[in-house]
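Usage

Read records sequentially. Each one opens with the input sequence:
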Amino acid sequence: MTQAGYGQDVRGATSNLQGTVFVGDPGSEAYVAKAQVLVSGPVMAITETDQDGKYTFDNIPPGIYTVEASFETLKGELSIKIEPDQLVELPIQLTMPEIKTSVTVSATESTSASPAPGETIKEKTVINAPNANEQFQGLLPLVPGVVRGPDGLVNLKGTRNTQSGALVNSANVTDPATGSPAISLPIDVVSSVKVISDPYDPEYGKLTGAVSNVETKTGDYEGYHFSIQNILPRPRVRDGSFVGIESATPRMTFTGPLVKDRIAFTQSFEYRFVRTPVNSLPPLQRDMKLEGFNSYSQYDLTISPKQTATISVAVYPQKLDYLGLNTFTPQPSTGDLHQRGYQIYGQDHYLLGSDSVLTCQLSFKRYDVDVTAQNNEPFQLLVDTTQGGFFNRQSRRANRFDWQEIYQMAPRHLLGSHQVKLGVEYSHSTYSGRETFLPVELIGANNLPIERLTFTPPTNFSTNQNEVTWFVGDQWSLSHRVTLDSGLRFDSDSVTGSTHVAPRLGLLVALTNDGKTLLKGGIGIFYDRVPLIYPVFDQMPDRTVTLLGPNGQTLGSTAYANRIGGELQNPRSTAWNLALERQVSEHFTVRVAYEQRNTARDFVVSPSAGYASGFITLSNAGSDSYREFQVTGRYRLSRMTLDASYVHSRAYGTLNDPQLFFGNYPQAVIQPDAFGRLSFDAPNRVLLHADIEGPWKLTIVPVFDIHTGFPYSVENQYREYIGARNVDRFPRFSSLDLQITRPISLPLGERHIKARIGGGIFNLFGRFNPRDVQNDIASTSFGQFYNSPALIFRGKLVFQF
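and closes with the structure output:
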């Protein structure tokens, strides 16, 4: 048996904890070797079961503990109170994760058993943390190094939204056309959200940065449960008067057995109508409007003691009106985004003996997008505002089929213990679309046209892609204090016609015999996917840029043709990290970590021109880098957990991301590419998060976030950049969010209904955190900031049957 982790405090009267980890029903159980067992409470410790499925923890201080066992995707969890001077026997049964999980670990528990830097947002945090939009994406910034950028998109560990992996139950949920995350789930079905920066496990691929993985709850095999919340709409208040509805987001979730102990069913519905204000615009013309519907259905099957399966269907159509609304783009000049998406998913786990697992996974994703405009008036970019109808219309139809087989072998013994995992993946994606670009005029400071953009007629295009991957990984426990993770991944795809080899290596060392000090590190190579809008780039409408004189006369004209510079290649990143974790005392742990990533062959768009003609070129000439130094501390008491982190980082690279000009909301003017701080670069960030069990059964969860303001560039009336790019910054961001809830019981005839009541407050101190800046030097308002969110209150009332 090997044991590593946070050591035990042997002062005073202690006890020993031991037991077995098994699958199947008692009496016909099969014991599981090499299962990871984590005990957390007054102290933490990690160990693995031996060949007979046994585990042991010595010298455990008295207290209330949670004991978690896991092997592959099977999990088991129990809570226990340990008295002084006891020998506690605690067998743990592994099943698919249960919906009724009692979680007492920290909200953002580190993935301590993995060399890769990562954090997990547990179910308790999903339920109790302040979350204004009540979507799982809103929880990701609770992870150090993850920020919501100025465009509202979440950036994981210094990566663009399209460079990271997005998984739900290990299935790819990105849009095949753009590579952006594209799924919406009712948050009631989310069990945990994990963020892994530069994962060294070769199972993860098709990314050059971090990956997020959402795990959904398993249906209840024993009894029926129903919850409903947000049944009352929130009124819209403008200038002290009620003007319609601001939002209505009712949710209902049901779970229970269809066949006792065999089939469990979960169904969750959510309707979303949300108006989000831009506070610098007139009161009744300041709202973006989202209307959508989310449905998630899941069947969990226990086929036999050794075989389980999950089948799910997610449907998430939505319409976003006034996409791109900001201080300088009023409602009539914005676009509308219509999306229709669904994903069908199936996964089967089969235990081959007691210590090897075969996992089969299939998924099919359909994702359609249409962008329309409010009107057909000429689109004009003025110095201080925008007029006319949005210049882009697009229609996209994309789908993807994924198949994956993973075999985790029984442990092998050669100079230690080896846990080998083999896998193969196949993916087929298709994309068809139509793009229309209408004329654009730039209006100068004198209110006269100074430049005109015209485009060739609309175009239709289609493409497809086949991807094949196989990988092998080995977790090698050289001794009870040293574990080496090695992996090799091979990726090939039909768009680039290439095959890439991606080796990874991770190391975990317990530096001290008591297991209180861990050294983790690793290095790896990663290859990204090719979004399907890129192979058809040269088929999109071309443009002509015409300079205009004071009287509207033509001063010069350049016709630009779209082209792909050379053969498309897969972007590649090389990343490494080093971290030191130490349990300083019974209640306090600390981690110091550094990670670095360098990405080459990234996609970039840039214009080049000769006399009267030129090219808009899509190529792999881009690059970027990310560096992060992090200090994280965790302080635990019996009724409180406090997580605090400081992150110093630098995100730098080429700035002309193709998604800015050919994504969901394209910009009209394309300037030459340049290097600079990326738009979501926040060099210094402090994040504080607490989970407090207060008096009167109150759960109090404050989140304080303060970081350097995001960078921006200065430009002139031609939208040309002046000086170095992204050197000026928004004011420092600072916000305190707070949610307080309490369980209550409501009488209903002879019965009582369980409920939770409370509320959340966002930007509690009303800090000025602007989202817009006037960066045009021709404006009389140059350098002024606008559009700060106001203090927001959200009530919460959840009925549970």
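Summary fields computed downstream for this record:
- The chain is about 0% helix and 60% strand.
- Residues 1-12, 98-112 have pLDDT under 50 and may be disordered.
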